[in-house]
Each structure stands twice: as C-alpha cells, then as structure tokens.
Specification:
Blueprint lengths: L2 H11 L4 H8 L3 H10 L19 H12 L9 H10 L6 H20 L12 E13 L2 E12 L5 E6 L4 H15 L5 E4 L6 E4 L5 E3 L1 H10 L2 E4 L9 H13 L10 H18 L9 H8 L14 E6 L5 E4 L2 E4 L8 E6 L4 E4 L11 E3 L8
Helix pairs in contact: 4-6, 5-6
Length: about 375
C-alpha cells in the first residue's frame, strides 16, 4: 500500500488525528496536513528503478540455489563459491548482494512450501473481489462480444455485473465507481488477480509493481489492493463463482438492447433483483438482507474518481485527431498542433498539453465507447 493511501486511510477510515498520524508514520504534521488539505491521491513524481548488477544473473543464481538445495550438506557449494562462479561469468557486484538474494530466495521457498491462504470468511465492510469475463449480447441488432466487469462484496455477497467493449483503464475505473455507487459505500480492501491494468510487473512472492493510475484510484477511494498468487483463482473464489453463475442467471435469458447503456441498466436492475431472491447461504436471510446490515460498515462514497487515460496527440493538417482507428474533427485553428487527449468510457476531452484542469477542456467528443455506437 502506498504512503498516500496509508495517510488517507488513517484520516478518513480510522478517524485518527494529524498528531497521531505523524507519530505513527514519522512524517511532519505540516506534510500530512498538506496532503490531506490538497486532496492529493497521486504522487507527482516517480522514483526511477535502479537496476542491480545482479539482475542479469538472477535467473542463473536462482537455478544454482535450487540445484544446491537438492544436494547433501557436504556437497553444496557455499555462497562464497557461488559468488566466485558468478564473477567468472562477468558479475562485478559484492558478495553481500549475492547473500541477500539467497536469503530472499530461501524465505520465498519456505513461504511457498507452507502455502498462503486468504480466508473466505469476511467481516462486514472488510473486502470486495473483482474480475473480468467475456460474454455476448445482441446490441443494435448485432451479436457483440463484451468485456464484463464483476464486483462483489465478500461479506454480504451483493454483486454488480457491468458490460464494456474493452478491458482498459477507463473501463476499470468506471466499473469500480458504479459498483461502489450500487453498494452504497467502499469496503476496506479489494482482491484482484494480476490483471495488466492494475499490475505492471509481478515480482517474487507477493511483490507487485502496481500501475500508477490504478494506485491513484485506490488512494481516492481509500481501499487497499491485494493481489492473488499467479494461477491461484481460488484465492478469490467468490467472484470466480459469480462469473459462472452469471451466465445462466443473466446472459442466457437476456433480451436485445438498442445500446450498451440500456444493457447496463438492465444488468444493474436484475443483479439487485437477484439479491432479494437469493439466500445468502451462510448467514440467515437473503443477500439483500445481509447487504442492508453491512452498509453501515462501508466507508461513505466520495465523489467519482476522475478516471481518464491521457495520451498525447497531434492534430492532422486536415484538423483530425485519430483514436482507436476512428478520426474526430477539431477546430481548424488547432491543425498541426499537439493536444492532450483524455479518454473516458463515454467521451474524449482534448486540451492543450500544458492545461491541467479537466473542468475547462477545449472540446468534448462523444465517442460512443460506452454507448456501443
């Protein structure tokens, strides 16, 4: 979890004072007050990755450690011998770096051998699970392939299914907003697989390099993201089952729709109808009954995250901007000039590259990403 997320969590969820946050984080009270008053949710700088001299030899060293672990104690090469063998291959780093790598490798092996399990019993407001699936619906008279977002409260099992044309960042942000809106608040953490819109790189064990825009969204809604181990779908078994159940309950009895907005309105209503008709299974009552009791444990819903993806574009001599193989016209005064294109699920905003405020765009393009036009 990022530092900004921790500060906002302490202030907004745990209702701690600035003095107490300062004591627990070691940051000055002025710094904490500045972050909270500015509503900062995304860092304005990134720390560059500093490559280690050991990186090119990491796979080789991991293989050696695995081989040596299978030998008897007397036959194993020592870490000093492994360091010397790496130097013979061109490694110029220190012995300490090799020893630190070996310690981390052994810790990871011990953790993996014991197994890591996420409990499937959750407190009210503790967590939600998220996943994507693919399904089809008839939209505007054509059978259309859809990317379907599933979001589910882990305690009450209340769920929302929402359809998009793509699995991009702006669609991901939109799905979270509508899920939290329907649930009436935000749980404390979200459980995901290692989808590319959330994780830039999967490291060893639970180490993840989280996408900066995804992290900004979690900071805004003040929840902690948690990622499953690769190929371990059972760690978010509730949402995996929701994907399976949605097909016979929703998609196989679905009428035709004029556009994607009509489909999503139908899905939202039918999901809520299923809450009232489906027994919770573990707790007394229906899903709707348990959800009503869970609502006070959810954090109050803030304003929607400004979930755009930004790209730099140059207007053509014929006053056109190209996006996703579609061309959109802009005023002639911007021909041959660079602009910043902010992409939302249902529209595009274009601004000068130096403009920061979305509230004053130069133009709005209704691009039909949500409407399916």
């Amino acid at each position: 979890m990022g530092l900004l997320n921790i500060i906002r969590r302490m202030a907004l969820r745990e209702k701690q004072s600035i003095r107490e946050i300062s004591r627990r984080t070691g940051l000055s009270r002025n710094t904490i007050a500045k972050y909270l008053s500015a509503g900062t949710i995304e860092p304005t700088f990134t720390v560059p990755e500093r490559p280690s001299k050991l990186d090119p030899f990491a796979d080789k060293l991991s293989g050696w450690l695995k081989t040596e672990a299978g030998r008897s104690r007397k036959q194993r090469r020592t870490l000093k011998q492994l360091h010397a063998d790496l130097m013979a291959l061109g490694f110029t780093g220190s012995y300490g770096r090799v020893a630190a790598f070996a310690r981390d490798w052994r810790t990871e092996q011990q953790t993996a051998s014991r197994g890591i399990f996420i409990p499937l019993s959750f407190r009210p407001g503790e967590a939600f699970q998220f996943d994507w699936s693919e399904d089809y619906a008839v939209i505007g008279g054509e059978r259309t392939k859809l990317q379907v977002a599933h979001i589910k409260l882990s305690h009450s099992r209340a769920f929302l299914v929402r359809a998009y044309l793509l699995q991009t960042h702006e669609m991901l942000f939109d799905a979270h907003w509508h899920g939290f809106r329907v649930f009436g608040g935000v749980p404390g953490r979200g459980i995901y697989d290692n989808m590319k819109t959330a994780v830039d790189r999967v490291g060893r064990g639970k180490e993840r390099q989280v996408n900066i825009r995804f992290l900004a969204m979690t900071n805004h809604y003040v929840f902690a993201p948690e990622f499953c181990n690769p190929a371990a779908g059972w760690e978010k078994g509730q949402i995996e089952k929701n994907v399976q159940d949605a097909r016979p309950r929703l998609w196989q009895q679905m009428p035709d729709f004029p556009d994607l907005a009509a489909l999503n309105a139908w899905l939202e209503q039918h999901c809520q109808d299923l809450w009232r008709d489906t027994a919770h299974g573990t707790l007394p009552g229906t899903i709707a009954d348990v959800w009503s009791a869970e609502q006070p444990a959810l954090m109050a819903l803030p304003a929607a995250f400004d979930g755009f993806v930004e790209q730099g574009k140059r207007v053509s001599p014929t006053c056109l901007i190209t996006f996703e193989r579609n061309r959109y016209s802009v005023p002639a005064s911007f021909a041959n000039r660079p602009v910043s294109l902010r992409i939302y699920p249902e529209r595009l905003l274009w601004l000068p590259p130096v403009m920061q405020e979305v509230s004053d765009p130069l133009g709005v393009i209704e691009c039909g990403l949500l409407s399916g036009l």
